[in-house]
Amino acid sequence: MDSVYSVYIHVPFCRTRCFYCDFNTFAGKDYLIPDYVNALCSEITRQKPYADVPVHSVYFGGGTPSRLSIADVTRIMETVRGTFRLTLDAEITFECNPCDVTAEYARGLADLGINRVSLGMQSAVPEELKRMGRRHTLEQTAEAIETLRSAGIRNINVDLIYGYPGQNMESWERSVRTAIELCVQHVSLYALSVEEGSALRKQLEMGRLTLPEEDVTVSMYELAARMLSDHGFRHYEISNWAVDEAYESRHNKQYWFVQPYYGFGAGAHGWINDRRIRNEGSIEAYIRKVNTSGERFPAAAENIPQDSHIEMQDVMMLGLRMLHEGITEQRFRERFGEEMRDVFCRELRHLERKNLVRWTPGGRLQLAPDKVMVANQAFIEFVD
Ligand code: SF4
């Protein structure tokens, strides 16, 4: 059977830099957007001779894709459609900063077939948004959702961050409740991780801010899980909830099921024909490489064959993130021609002994429901 593919497009431009951010994104470089869009279209077109494959999801991530004009997004979408065979029901997601969503922009996205938008809401509390260095307000998030719906985009995700300095159970409860009241279809929760080089790290080192205690962060996650489930959301992946199976992120499931995907743009990762590809991270180096190389993957800083044992480990680790689907013995056998219990005999014994996993009828392995907060203890079994 043919594999179904996904396409990721990275847009590494942001107007300002949020204090916690360590993504591959840059502020003050918008003057490079025209050259970047040219390079992106050239990189995508390079796949045409090999790309007669069905693509069932496209994801514009960043950075801030909504820094692009509708004319730029149109060019990119036309290039994607001209290169790949998009399925009729393809999920096409676009990440937006809430303050960029005007009625005209939302209509432009909808006209291009973009049918899912992910908004970086992060919090419903004004002081927290300021402390994160976000430039939008809660009101702008609410307006963006209304505007997108009026334009016909009805599949909307919001991201929320927990464990941020100054957050407490009360303010977190307010953020989760507000997200629920906004009637979105999908919620993603991100535990704050303080990364080297971020402005937040410096603020913490200088003692200007302090992180909530770890047990408070755990309680925040548990509270959100309870509230979302009480309001009918299905907890389908460790950090993700959807109102219905139909609204689970098809694109992210592609990663968790370890299925092939193209990654275009600066710093993007792809997994194609059993090779792992990682592009140059800097915008300038990316543009230069695309413009000067005749290779199929012109901007690759890394292009290495995937080791099949590592692929098996990924299937186990990422599969356990999927709380319902998990990993079935049959799928593992069909994919690798080997038995999961033979390949990972020792690891499975450890997991079973620590009650970190459970087997359900039909040979399905899942993370134990009460072990979601310590899932890393399970994942570590599949890391050499
Ligand atoms: S908008 Fe997103 S990508 Fe840009 S700086 Fe903020 S967190 Fe990072």
Overall description:
The chain is α/β, with parallel strands linked by helices. It is built from 15 helices and 17 strands. The strands form 4 sheets. The protein has a 9-stranded mixed β-sheet, sandwiched between helices. It starts with a strand and ends in a 5-residue tail after the last helix. The model has no long low-confidence stretch (mean pLDDT 96). Iron/sulfur cluster (SF4) binds next to loops. The site of iron/sulfur cluster has 11 residues, from loops.
Write the layout of secondary structure elements.
Elements: E1 5-11, E2 13-14, E3 26-27, H1 33-45, E4 54-62, H2 70-83, E5 85-96, H3 103-111, E6 116-122, H4 126-132, H5 138-150, E7 155-162, H6 169-181, E8 186-191, H7 199-205, H8 214-230, E9 234-237, E10 240-242, H9 250-256, E11 261-264, E12 269-272, E13 275-279, H10 283-292, E14 300-305, H11 308-321, E15 327-328, H12 329-336, H13 340-343, H14 345-353, E16 357-360, E17 364-367, H15 375-379
Helix pairs in contact: 1-2, 1-10, 6-8
The structure holds iron/sulfur cluster.
